[in-house]
Predict the 3D structure of the following.
Amino acid sequence: MTFTARPHHAPPALAALSALVFALAGCPPGETTTPPPPRGEMADAVDMIARGDFPAAEALLGQLLRDHLAEPAQAHHYLGVCAEQREDWAAAEEHYREALRRQPGLFESRHNLGNVLHYRGRDDDALATLTELTLAFPEEAEGFLALGIQQEEMGDHEGALASLGKASELDAAPLPPPVESSMGASAGFAALFETAAILGELGRTDEELAVMREAVARSSGAPIAAVGLARALLRAGREDEAETALRDCLATHPGDATAGFVLGGLLVEARRCDEAVPLLQAALPVFLAANPEAGTVRKIREALAACEAPESP
């Protein structure tokens, strides 16, 4: 299946969720058995999508349809994915609807259609589509995750929390190693971050912290979760606990640049430059390599300047 996920509160690593490619299921509503993977040139098109070569995939899929060499519902689903990548929401909607007309039980086509309708500004239609998705597939966490995000976009905080809680409940297994690659496939893990963000916005700090602690436990202390917890603790004014969370993270993930940056900034504010400078100096090259113009680079340089320290040891 190929899902697309709109950017929202989820952390950057979870963007991998939108790039996962599975075999398209042609199942009746309520069933999600995995069929054999696509074969021949259809499999080539799916591989192109997995590699990010959407124009080539779209051209091949169109040719396969014209030559009657592809299963139509499957081809239209993947054409919808390609159209989304170029932000042609009208074409994406058309392809997903055609896939569903041919096979109404396609979970992933209905899931992606909900996102497309949101981007087209038709939130009521998106909400209805995603609600139908969860009713047809009540055991699929991805459906409740998408519904929760849509409800939050429409200002229904309690509805969103309920849907996200269901997603987290349905997909509650600890992330298997390697955690960094498996977290993108976990709707439950994404739901925890979405939930924490909503609770933070609502000022429900204790609940936010409890959810972030669950994310840390579920991911075996992955930096993305540990740093999220630390930032929530800092917003709550609990600097000592935030420092402990960050040091625990660095003990199990030495050299993690984000944890080092956040801990370094915390230490600079506490006027503990001797401890902060090595962390900031180690983090700076990592963020420079990723994006020299990023705000994080500026903040690290400002922190080093406040400590009257050079950018490199």
Summary: Residues 273-290 form the longest helix (18 residues). Residues 139-240 form a domain with the Serine Threonine Protein Phosphatase 5, Tetratricopeptide repeat fold (CATH 1.25.40.10).
